[in-house]
Amino acid sequence: DVGIASADGIFQVSGGIGSINNYAGATITAVAVSATLDGDVDGYGGRAVVDGTRMTAFNAYQYNGGEIVASAYVAPGSEALLHPSLALAYGTYMHARSTYPSDPAYLSDFVNTVELLNTGSIEAYAGADMGEAAAYGAFLLGSFYSSTTNSGHILAEADADEGFAVAVGTYNYASVSEYLGCDYYGCHYAVRDGVSVLDNQEGGEIIAYASADAGVAEAYGSVVLAPFAATTTNAGSISAYASSEGGLAYATGSLTRSFYGLPELHNSGIIYAGAYGEVAVAIGANVIGTYGVVV
Length: 295
What we know:
The protein is an all-beta fold and 295 residues long. Helices cover 0% and strands 68% of the residues. The chain has strands at 4-13, 17-22, 27-35, 47-57, 59-64, 67-75, 86-96, 113-118, 121-127, 132-142, 145-150, 153-159, 164-174, 176-183, 186-193, 195-200, 205-211, 216-226, 229-234, 237-258, 264-267, 270-289. The strands form 3 sheets. Strands 1, 3, 4, 6, 7, 9, 10, 12, 13, 17, 18, 20 and 22 form a 13-stranded parallel beta sheet that branches. The chain has a 7-stranded parallel beta sheet with strand order 2-5-8-11-16-19-21, with no helix packed on it. Strands 14-15 form a two-stranded antiparallel sheet. The termini are far apart.
């Protein structure tokens, strides 16, 4: 009831290939509930962390045709604390780990991927009034390649009145660095690769909703980041809603960014952003590239 609560619907770690298949008619549910204790001597609020599915592997693959639900909630105390409460929810969390080979001749053996194919429903909810709430529908971290293909439903919802709420429908990031050695000034690395892709197909729906009255609400429908190739393709709908009565609200429907390459956005569907608050900023689609963009 008070303290730290965590839950995983599925937790998978593999040194090679990791795979999760959740077929139509199947359901994966994870719920974590905690509360903040008034007068905590260390000034800490409650913690609730939850993953519908969490997997780490050299190559990670997941198919969902059923339903995945992750819910994290922290009941508030009666006053603000030095270390606010935290509710963190991932519908699905996928991480592909790898390092750049010391000999480039072996590069093909090290190219790893993290891939999600969703034709069903993935939902993440986080609530923590007077604290911090973060919800991610699908969160993918890759080294060489990160890909989400969606023709189903993905939802992230975060609620934190008098606090900070962030909701991200889908998040794709990929980056791999080569270790160059250490010297008097420290250790050195060079970014060598990284490709991120989101393909939201016809009928696919991605929604992010953040609410934080008298606080700060941020919502991102989709985020695609990579050092080199970052591509968002949308033939369905991607939406972000941020609401904060008496506070700050920021919403971005689609964010695509490449640090060293040309980011691409191909849209034949609907991308929407709505922000409502004392200060409100809404951006439908944001494409950022150091050397230009392709839209």
